[in-house]
Specification:
This protein is α+β, with helices and mostly antiparallel strands. The chain folds into six domains: 2-39 and 170-196, 2-Layer Sandwich (Phenylalanyl-tRNA Synthetase, Chain B, domain 1); 48-165, Nucleic acid-binding proteins (OB fold (Dihydrolipoamide Acetyltransferase, E2P)); 221-411, Phenylalanyl-trna Synthetase, Chain B, domain 3 (Phenylalanyl-tRNA Synthetase, Chain B, domain 3, 3-Layer(bba) Sandwich), CATH 3.50.40; 421-485, Phenylalanyl-tRNA Synthetase, Chain B, domain 1; 502-726, Bira Bifunctional Protein, Domain 2 (BirA Bifunctional Protein, domain 2, 2-Layer Sandwich), CATH 3.30.930; 742-829, Alpha-Beta Plaits, CATH 3.30.70.380. The chain has 21 helices and 43 strands. The strands form twelve sheets. Strands 29-32-33-39-38-37-36 form a seven-stranded mixed β-sheet, with helices on both faces. Helix 5 (248-256) crosses helix 6 (264-276), helix 13 runs antiparallel to helix 17 and helix 20 crosses helix 21. The longest helix is centred in the last third of the chain and has 17 residues, at 809-825. It starts with a strand and ends with a strand.
Length: 831
């Protein structure tokens, strides 16, 4: 909501010493948040005055252009009192007209400095201004391509023109919360000023006025849906002059609110809406045929609204009809057939109260965002329809002539407001401040509530506050008027001996570990589309495609909750590559969403749900396991003057996962599998204690190409919940032996398909307790080992913690290890 400060002060007196900043600060503290303070003339400096055109000589130029050489009386503003010579290219003025002149030394918006300069054979000292040059385009002063011509009685030459044009006006823009529709009117803003600003007095309610009583001679109206339209007021004005101009103050105030001036009749309805908060609609009475009827639309009905759009109506839409058919979408937008135009001399005024929920649904259904709809859908005071209509009649007669019809139609009565019962000390208990019951009652009455009782208060909200429906709302009103800034900031004292849960501690440990491996943490959106799965080459029958669909997604291209962390992480990696980052590792820890397949039940609100209903609700909640994913691109070891670097490989991804598992005392087993989006020959299925926790390896070349990643990029994704569940929290310290080590190397020939990890596990188990460590140090293929075979060379280290090994013990342990590997994998020891 935007409005001029002077318009606010028309309805409430504010102490002179209260600055605009202080006024808006106080309003912000009580809930009407300041968005911006602007001034149309803030960028204009120097002399900007009224000038009277004395002479105007038209001088054709060689380029076909005709310029005006003018002498203009600017009084003493130029320091000499002599007429000012000015060149002007506009032609919508003449001698005797009063214009706006900026003299040399002035600066216009955009930093455009004005100086005395020679042009077209004359010395031009200043500029005669248009609205666009002053930043007033789109306002009442905008004359198209012409300059501003002031009223003959605008003032004497040389008078500063800023106040006349409204350039010195301060425009305040408020952010109005949806539940505070009263803030979309000067009536509501001024009332908040009264209760928020110290010293503000004399509130003048623009909706408080004597109105003529309803009678039977007004325009006939029939309301068939009293729930959708509880109140409908109709008034008429005849003999209106459609050519009458909109007064400058009305046009300027409408412009300051961000609305354009259309015509006197339309401007007045908008002006009263801004003033009182009550949307008004005007019909050309000569185009209305018969009685007005308010009802719900019938299936198949259509209406062309004022914006020229033909709309197919819903049976939920409230419409206004006459004998010719539908003439308006009730409370949202009128129809073309009864639009007020340049020939309108008779006006039928509608001031009706509409059901807020219906207004919201209609506006959303038809994608209409109008100023009237914005107010009606938030809730408007239903008791001021007669006053608003009477105010429109008053302004139409004052500025457009004509006669007010004797008939006054009022159908229906405002809805009854139910009182709210609330404890007198509730605000004190909620806020932690010392708020007495008397203070609470005073605050509630200040915002318009009727309060009775003691201890247990009966509070009847004012009709302009449909948002106040329960004790929490009344408590909020008390606290906001006492001051949110006065609410004490008290942090709860945590009970002794408690801190992070075990799961939280382990999650932090995982993050520190993977960061220590050289990866940087990122956070991505958990939303994907089918195209993301396609890019990763995930098969159509893969369970990862069974994703939860959002009702209102942020993007139509990503309507699903992700079942894998990789899509967002890979997009981030691709973006970094696009920015020129060639070598890096990133990771993310995040939950994924795995649908359960069941629909969540709608629980009752009139009672506490039963245990069975709670259980059904919990059963429908999707499973959300915690995952860790990582991506590495480019070089694992950077090249430089120290030597050649090393590209990342599938083993880097596996080793990173092993480091994470090792941080909680777990060992990871790996075996080769085919699983998208990894390379079919370089993908490892990772397991802990026999449970598959995820996959790691080199990304498929097609995936890299589709995403713009370099070939050979690697990735991994694991389930951290399994690691947390199986974590070894108390691990004994490693025993460091002082005894000598015995080293044995073995080379085993196995089939190409045999995983090295399977051979390693067999060697480890067969070697027994004396084995300290085992390491694969070479993989060889070639004629020497045969086609379809490979040689795996392992380094085994044996040591006893309390003694030196005897001769033959290390060899015996080695032979036992080889024997078990031969039995399980078919390995043959190379000579």
């Amino acid at each position: 909501m935007k409005t001029a400060l002077s318009w606010i002060k028309e309805y409430v007196d504010v102490p002179v010493e209260v600055t605009t900043e202080e006024l808006t600060r106080r309003l912000t503290m009580t809930g009407l948040k300041l968005e911006a303070i602007t001034s149309p003339g803030a960028e204009i400096t120097g002399p900007l005055v009224i000038g009277t055109v004395l002479t105007q000589d038209k001088e054709p130029q060689k380029n076909g252009k005709v310029i005006n050489w003018c002498t203009v009386d600017v009084g003493d503003a130029n320091g000499t009192g002599e007429p000012q010579g000015i060149i002007c290219g506009a032609h919508n003025f003449g001698p005797g007209d009063k214009v706006v002149v900026v003299l040399p030394g002035g600066v216009l918006p955009g930093g455009f400095a004005i100086s005395e300069r020679k042009t077209y054979g004359h010395l031009s000292a200043g500029m005669i201004c248009s609205a666009a040059e002053l930043g007033l385009d789109g306002t009442v002063w905008d004359a198209g391509d012409g300059i501003i011509v002031l009223d003959p009685d605008a003032g004497e030459p040389g008078t500063d023109v800023r106040s006349i044009l409204g350039l010195d006006e301060e425009i305040i823009e408020f952010e109005v919360n949806p539940d505070r529709a009263y803030g979309l009117s000067l009536r509501g803003i001024a009332r908040d000023v009264l209760v928020s600003v110290d010293g503000a007095t004399n509130y003048r309610d623009p909706a408080l006025r004597e109105t003529p009583a309803a009678n039977g001679s007004g325009h006939p109206v029939r309301v068939e849906d009293a729930t959708g339209c509880p109140v409908f007021v109709a008034r008429t004005v005849t003999g209106f002059d459609p050519t009458a101009p909109t007064p400058g103050f009305i046009a300027a105030r409408i412009s300051s609110a961000g609305m354009r001036s259309v015509s006197l009749a339309v401007d007045i309805t908008n002006y009263v809406m801004l003033e009182t908060g009550r949307p008004i609609h005007g019909y050309d009475a000569d185009k209305v045929q018969g009685a007005l009827v308010v009802r719900r639309a019938v299936a198949g009905e259509k209406l062309t609204t004022l914006d020229g759009t033909a709309r197919a109506l819903s049976t939920e839409d409230l419409v206004v009809v006459d004998d010719s058919g539908i003439i308006g979408l009730g409370g949202v937008m009128g129809g073309e057939t009864t639009e007020m135009g340049e020939a309108t001399t008779s006006i039928l005024i509608e001031a009706a109260h509409w059901d807020a929920v219906s207004m919201f649904r209609t506006g959303k259904r038809h994608k209409i965002s109008s100023e009237a709809g914005k107010r009606n859908e938030r809730g408007v005071d239903p008791t001021i329809c007669e006053a608003a209509a009477d105010r429109v009649v008053e302004l139409l007669l004052a500025h457009g002539g004509g006669t007010a019809g004797e008939g006054v139609t009022v159908v229906g009565t405002p809805p009854v407001i139910a009182p709210i019962t609330v404890a007198g000390d509730k605000a004190a208990k909620v806020s932690g401040m010392e708020i007495s019951e008397e203070t609470a009652i005073e605050a509630l009455r200040a915002v318009g509530c009727e309060v009775t009782g003691s201890g247990q208060l009966s509070v009847t909200p004012p009709p302009w506050r449909p948002d106040m429906t329960d004790p929490q709302d009344t408590t909020e009103e008390v606290i906001r008027l006492v001051g949110y800034d006065k609410v004490p900031s008290v942090l709860p004292v945590p009970p002794a001996g408690r801190g992070l849960t075990v799961a939280q501690q382990l999650r932090r440990r995982f993050g520190r570990t993977i960061a220590g491996e050289g990866f940087v943490e990122v956070i991505t959106f958990p939303f994907v589309g089918a195209a993301d799965f396609d890019v990763l080459g995930i098969p159509a029958d893969d369970e990862r495609r069974n994703a939860l669909r959002l009702e209102n997604p942020l993007s139509s291209e990503a309507p699903l909750m992700t079942t894998t962390v990789l899509p967002g992480l890979l997009r981030t990696a691709a973006r970094n590559v696009g920015y020129g980052n060639g070598s890096f590792g990133i990771f993310e820890t995040a939950s994924v969403t795995l649908p359960t397949g069941g629909a969540a039940p709608i629980l009752p609100v009139d009672r506490r749900p039963s245990d069975e209903e709670f259980a059904a609700l919990n059963a429908a909640i999707p499973h959300q396991p915690l995952r860790l994913a990582l991506v590495a691109v480019g070089e694992a070891e950077l090249s430089g003057w120290w030597g050649e670097g090393r590209q990342v490989s599938w083993s880097d991804a596996v080793d990173a996962v092993r480091a994470v598992a090792d941080s909680v005392g777990l060992a990871v087993s790996a075996r080769g599998v085919e699983y998208a989006p990894w390379h079919p020959g370089r993908c490892a299925e990772l397991s802990v204690a026999g449970v598959v926790i995820g996959h790691a390896g080199e990304l498929h070349p097609k995936v890299c190409t589709a995403l713009g990643l370099p070939r050979g990029s690697v990735a991994a994704e694991i389930d951290l919940d399994v690691l947390i569940e199986n974590a070894v929290l108390l691990r004994p310290a490693s025993v460091v032996s002082t005894q000598p080590v015995a080293k044995e190397d073995v080379a085993l020939v196995v089939d190409d398909e045999t995983p090295a990890i399977a051979v390693e596990e067999a060697l480890r188990e067969g070697a027994g307790e004396l084995l300290e460590s085992i390491r694969l140090f070479d993989v060889f293929t070639g004629e020497q080992v045969g086609e379809g075979k490979k040689s795996l060379a392992f380094a085994l280290r044996f040591r006893a913690a309390d003694r030196t090994l005897k001769e033959g013990e290390a060899g015996a342990a080695r032979d036992a290890a080889v024997a078990l590997a031969t039995e399980r994998t078919g390995a043959v020891q190379r000579a």
